[in-house]
């Protein structure tokens, strides 16, 4: 439910940035754990990496790349808005950020599948 | 709950990560083609100072960035503040840094 | 001649402090009618105990802001036609401020933060000195001019989610005021302005949601002002850093 005072593009961009950021922060420890396993328990790591061959997992991975892309381009957008004085084009920049995120993660999913 | 110093740490770590994320995305797309095995990953990263510096910097920056980001969310969602908020920030940062450093060391040097 | 039309159903928040509920009134529709007119009609014709606040009725004083269908607006300049949905309007007190009674909020936190952000004028000349000449067309003066039309209506303050989740956050209007002062050549101590907005409730907490700019009835741009403060505090951060080394 989006409350009436929030129904505009910049608020939505803020929301996406927060959700993707939080999700990435929660995912990171697991990511690090898996990488550490590559050496200490190569069998488990290999099993896990083979597990990433499954289609559903591939899609989930695509989702992660999407989150990263959303957070990345949303962040670049924020840095631009904060540090460069071009106030007029805020919505355009926001839209471009989201479009880029879809493009990158989309091409990732297509390649992976 | 950000003062000017935390804000700068947040934004500077973000700027450092701009090229790193590009690199990481490229690596992922490259590695995912044909599927990757432990041996393949290690073959590329073992003993490489470049990879160590690349991912070492990445881990340091992301620890700072995520710790401050989660701090803000915790403050705004649960109104936690004062020394507990400080402690939580440091704890998250330290946890990510240690886990990340371990992962980087394992794949480059261990 | 105004034809007889169906009455509008107006839900108005009634209550003291943090408790209360909506009460619905039937109000006759007119051709030309603002939301404030509707509230006034209710108070004069239906229930004289309804509390609300206004003064100028022409968008100058900033005292009449309320939540209209969940969005903050200056009610004296909001035409009913723009907000009427299915013949209904919901009117509530401004968000993010304590309610005194019905539609009247306690604006103290808003003004306290204005002062906390360094919003009061500090004279840099005495009465014996000549009046300072201010050129209207410099870029800096124009940046200052952008914010001076603020009427302190707290619409931006009510729109901002950072205000609701971070008690100390100074809010868009107060920060915009600081940006105005920063660009005002009559203000000498710029660093003091920046320091006032660099604490735990300062400009750095803004998430660039832009609800402030979206809803400001005077088309001001607090979001842009806050971005300006972020830039200048970042510069001063590096300046100080290099001085300390
Ligand atoms: S841009 Fe900043 S001040 Fe304006 S509504 Fe958003 S968070 Fe609040
Ligand atoms: S900046 Fe705009 S919305 Fe905010 S108090 Fe001033 S006039 Fe009202
Ligand atoms: S009554 Fe003065 S601004 Fe609306």
Describe the structure.
The complex is a heterotrimer of chains A (113), B (110) and C (245). The radius of gyration of chain A is 17 Å and the shape is elongated. In chain A, α1 (9-40) packs antiparallel against α2 and α1 crosses α3. With 113 residues, chain A is mainly alpha-helical. Chain A has a single domain, classed as 3 helical TM bundles of succinate and fumarate reductases. Chain A has helices at residues 9-40, 42-51, 55-83, 90-112. Chain A has 4 helices and no strands. Chain B has 4 helices and no strands. In chain B, α3 (49-78) runs antiparallel to α4. Chain B has one domain: 3 helical TM bundles of succinate and fumarate reductases (Up-down Bundle), CATH 1.20.1300. Helices cover 85% and strands 0% of the residues of chain B. With 245 residues, chain C is an alpha+beta fold. Chain C is built from 10 helices and 7 strands. Chain C has helices at residues 35-46, 80-83, 108-116, 139-147, 155-159, 161-165, 172-183, 190-196, 211-215, 222-244, and strands at 8-14, 21-27, 65-68, 71-74, 88-92, 99-101, 104-105. Chain C is elongated, with a radius of gyration of 21 Å. Chain A binds chain B through residues 18, 21-22, 24-25, 28-29, 31-33, 35-36, 38-40, 42, 45-46, 49-50, 52-53, 61, 65, 68-69, 72, 75-76, 79, 82, 104, 107-108, 111-112, and chain B through 11, 14-15, 18, 21, 25, 28-29, 32-33, 35-38, 41-42, 62, 66, 69-70, 73, 92, 95-96, 99-100, 102-104, 106-107, 110. One iron/sulfur cluster binds at residues 159-160, 162, 172, 206-212, 222-223, 226 of chain C. FE2/S2 (inorganic) cluster binds next to loops of chain C.
């Amino acid at each position: 439910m989006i409350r009436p005072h929030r129904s505009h593009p910049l608020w939505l961009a803020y929301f996406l940035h927060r959700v993707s950021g939080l999700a990435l922060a929660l995912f990171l420890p697991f990511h690090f754990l898996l990488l550490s396993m590559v050496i200490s328990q190569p069998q488990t790591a290999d099993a896990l990496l083979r597990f990433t061959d499954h289609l559903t997992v591939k899609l989930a991975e695509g989702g992660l790349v999407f989150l990263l892309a959303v957070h990345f381009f949303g962040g670049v957008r924020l840095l631009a808005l904060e540090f460069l004085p071009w106030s007029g084009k805020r919505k355009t920049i926001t839209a471009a950020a989201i479009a880029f995120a879809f493009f990158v993660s989309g091409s990732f999913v297509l390649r992976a599948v | 709950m950000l003062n000017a110093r935390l804000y700068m740490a947040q934004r500077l770590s973000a700027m450092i990560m701009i090229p790193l994320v590009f690199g990481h995305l490229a690596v992922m797309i490259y590695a995912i083609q044909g599927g990757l095995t432990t041996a393949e990953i290690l073959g590329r990263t073992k003993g490489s100072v470049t990879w160590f510096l690349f991912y070492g910097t990445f881990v340091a920056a992301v620890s700072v960035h995520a710790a401050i980001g989660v701090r803000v969310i915790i403050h705004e969602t649960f109104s936690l503040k004062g020394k507990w908020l400080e402690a939580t920030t440091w704890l998250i940062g330290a946890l990510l840094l240690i886990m990340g450093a371990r992962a980087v060391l394992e794949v480059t040097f261990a | 001649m105004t034809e007889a039309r169906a009455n509008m159903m107006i839900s108005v928040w009634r209550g003291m402090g943090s408790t209360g509920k909506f009460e619905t009134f039937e109000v006759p529709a007119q051709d030309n009618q603002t939301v404030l007119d509707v509230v006034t009609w209710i108070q004069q014709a239906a229930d004289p105990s309804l509390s609300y606040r206004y003064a100028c009725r022409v968008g100058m004083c900033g005292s009449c802001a309320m939540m209209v269908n969940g969005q903050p607006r200056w009610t004296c300049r909001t035409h009913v036609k723009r907000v009427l949905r299915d013949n209904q309007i919901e009117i509530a007190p401004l968000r993010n401020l304590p309610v005194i009674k019905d539609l009247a909020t306690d604006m103290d936190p808003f003004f306290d933060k204005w002062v906390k952000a360094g919003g009061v004028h500090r004279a840099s000349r005495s009465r014996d000195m000549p009046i300072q000449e201010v050129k209207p067309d410099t870029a800096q003066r124009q940046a200052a001019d952008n914010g001076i039309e603020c009427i302190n209506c707290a619409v931006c303050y009510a729109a901002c989610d950072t205000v609701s989740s971070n008690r100390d956050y100074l809010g868009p209007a107060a920060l915009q005021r600081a940006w105005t002062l920063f660009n005002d050549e009559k203000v000498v101590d710029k660093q003091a302005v920046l320091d006032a907005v660099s604490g735990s409730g300062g400009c750095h907490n803004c998430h660039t949601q832009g609800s402030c700019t979206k809803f400001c009835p005077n088309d001001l741009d607090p979001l842009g002002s806050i971005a300006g403060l972020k830039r200048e505090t970042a510069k001063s951060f590096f300046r100080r850093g290099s001085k300390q080394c």
